[in-house]
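Exercise 7. Given the encoded structure of a 608-residue chain, write a plausible sequence.
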């Protein structure tokens, strides 16, 4: 009843001295250790829920005398995290993390005692899989606002998924709700008022065992994954690999700990802490290297990299080349490549031109892998991945912006699912033909997603000032990129994709060529050949897209270069009316003028 009363209670009713509700909560929470039947499963859950709901009442007290009683609900032996009921213990981990978020600074004097009490629970969470009774959504945060939980060893069949299961599987593996206790510990330790020496000692005591857990289970997990490939066809139980689960759990535990440490602390005020997490990243890179085909471990590692980027900022840059190389392995399938492209796109958004050396190194293998996965017969119009009934109306997609595009994508996925279901039902008696059709549709859908992810990656490359990577790439890579953009700009069923390709083609060609900062010498033979390729690409884009492309050049691309108006008009005229050779000569002249202007500006700056 106390919990329900707090649901709609006004803020004033919970302030000290303004009503009986807050006072009643303080009395009950302060004497929580003496609650009648306090260890009963339902009573224990209700008491912890009430403690979280009334945490702000505890916070407003002058001396917070109720805090020891509240902590006893969670940390006393046989209660809270140590409750005999697995459901109660799992839920307690989630609720304790919420309590720490609310009372973070108030709990600082108790940090040492809290960490000592939590130590056995931390070890158990990191090393002991949850029982079947504690699987997703039954007891943890998923029951009342927290994410769905519980990844178990039973889910790790060599890290691979059958094609029929791919459409139902999330992009990242579910996690164990008990790991919220590591998040709570990170929040406690990540406070600036805690002395650095104490932080380092406590953090080292937590991170070192987790890193050893990763390193010690890599070889057994790899052996289990190899055995799982054979076992899938027979006994699935034989493919369950606890070592892989232990690695998953350790990676997530480190990521949860890291959430409590702000980027400023890890990079500026206390870089020693950031270095400890960088050591964890170095260890984590060995996971996809040892188990390149393990889907759940790949997903968890990518999420781990995202977490480290948020906390360590540019400190992760030296580690990214190795991380991306092990992710983009030669056996990477379409979904693996999509994950890498999405990661690189987000990294470019965060680090911009600092990513240029890495993008230059990764662009050739990325382009080659995308081309190999899509194959020479892939229809770049996207029709294979988009059923005709789901194709967006051009006027709607063009006028509705991002919301219309999202709605169209959702309609496409729904229609694809219906078509798969119909094909499967229709082919049920045909000796497996229905399953083959479903597999073919699923493969086409994945390829369509890969094409879109590739365009998003190229858009990020051009949008964040990294088009110079195209200039450094081999001619075959540039040809492949421009061919994919021109085909998408001319024929894709989604108008938003066509517009993106059109914009990218112009920006990649013109901006990459004419920005003086690229240092191209117009008199060089290699540059002359490149200018010819750019001219041919611009003519092809105009032939495919017409005046829409010319308008984009006039309205956005050329003005951003600061060229005189007459030069802009001359360029657009040659794109529209001239042959590729004349356009090449025009581009070469503009490049000479750009280089001369840059040299003059540099000389004037040196003269000052």
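Solution.
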């Amino acid at each position: 009843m106390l919990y329900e009363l707090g649901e709609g209670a006004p803020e004033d009713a919970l302030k000290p001295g303004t009503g009986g509700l807050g006072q009643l909560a303080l009395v009950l929470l302060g004497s929580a250790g003496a609650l009648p039947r306090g260890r009963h499963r339902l009573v224990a859950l209700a008491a912890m829920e009430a403690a979280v709901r009334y945490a702000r009442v505890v916070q407003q007290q002058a001396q917070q005398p109720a805090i020891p009683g509240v902590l006893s609900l969670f940390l006393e032996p046989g209660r809270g995290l140590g409750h005999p009921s697995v459901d109660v213990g799992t839920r307690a981990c989630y609720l304790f993390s919420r309590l720490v978020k609310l009372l973070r600074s108030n709990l600082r004097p108790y940090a040492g005692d809290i960490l000592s009490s939590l130590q056995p629970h931390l070890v158990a969470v990191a090393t002991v899989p949850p029982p079947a009774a504690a699987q997703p959504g039954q007891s943890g945060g998923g029951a009342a606002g927290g994410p769905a939980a519980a990844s178990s060893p039973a889910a790790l069949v060599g890290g691979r998924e059958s094609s029929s299961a791919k459409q139902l599987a999330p992009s990242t593996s579910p996690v164990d709700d008990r790991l919220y206790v590591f998040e709570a510990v990170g929040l406690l330790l990540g406070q600036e008022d805690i002395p650095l020496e104490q932080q380092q000692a406590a953090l080292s005591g937590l991170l070192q065992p987790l890193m050893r857990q990763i390193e010690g289970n890599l070889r057994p997990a790899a052996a289990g994954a190899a055995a799982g490939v054979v076992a899938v066809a027979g006994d699935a139980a034989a493919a369950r690999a606890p070592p892989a689960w232990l690695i998953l759990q350790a990676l997530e535990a480190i990521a949860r700990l890291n959430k409590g440490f702000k980027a400023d602390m890890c990079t500026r005020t206390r870089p020693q802490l950031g270095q400890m997490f960088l050591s964890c990243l170095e260890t984590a890179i060995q996971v996809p290297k040892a188990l390149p085909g393990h889907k759940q471990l790949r997903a968890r590692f990518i999420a781990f990299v995202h977490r480290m980027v948020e906390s360590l900022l540019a400190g992760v840059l030296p580690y990214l080349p190795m991380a991306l190389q092990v992710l983009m392995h030669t056996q990477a399938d379409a979904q693996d490549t999509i994950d890498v492209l999405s990661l690189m796109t987000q990294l470019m958004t965060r680090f911009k031109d600092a990513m240029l050396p890495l993008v230059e190194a990764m662009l050739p293998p990325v382009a080659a892998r995308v081309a190999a996965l899509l194959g020479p017969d892939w229809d770049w119009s996207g029709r294979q991945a988009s059923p005709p009934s789901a194709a967006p109306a051009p006027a709607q997609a063009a006028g509705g912006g991002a919301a219309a595009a999202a709605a169209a994508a959702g309609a496409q996925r729904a229609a694809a699912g219906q078509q798969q279901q119909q094909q499967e039902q229709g082919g049920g008696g045909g000796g497996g033909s229905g399953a083959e059709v479903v597999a073919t549709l699923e493969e086409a859908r994945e390829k369509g997603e890969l094409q879109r992810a590739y365009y998003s990656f190229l858009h990020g490359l051009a949008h964040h000032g990294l088009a110079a990577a195209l200039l450094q790439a081999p001619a075959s890579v540039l040809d492949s990129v421009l061919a994919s953009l021109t085909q998408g700009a001319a024929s894709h069923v989604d108008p938003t994709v066509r517009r993106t390709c059109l914009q990218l083609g112009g920006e990649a060609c013109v901006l990459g060529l004419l920005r003086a900062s690229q240092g191209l010498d117009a008199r060089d033979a290699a540059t002359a050949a490149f200018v010819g390729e750019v001219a041919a690409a611009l003519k092809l884009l105009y032939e495919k897209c017409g005046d829409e492309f010319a308008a984009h050049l006039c309205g956005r691309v050329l003005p951003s270069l600061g060229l005189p108006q007459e030069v802009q008009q001359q360029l657009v005229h040659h794109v529209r009316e001239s042959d590729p050779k004349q356009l090449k000569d025009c581009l070469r002249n503009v490049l000479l003028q750009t280089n001369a202007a840059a040299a003059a500006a540099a000389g004037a700056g040196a003269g000052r």
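Remark. The chain has a mean pLDDT of 79. Students should compare their own answers with the one above.
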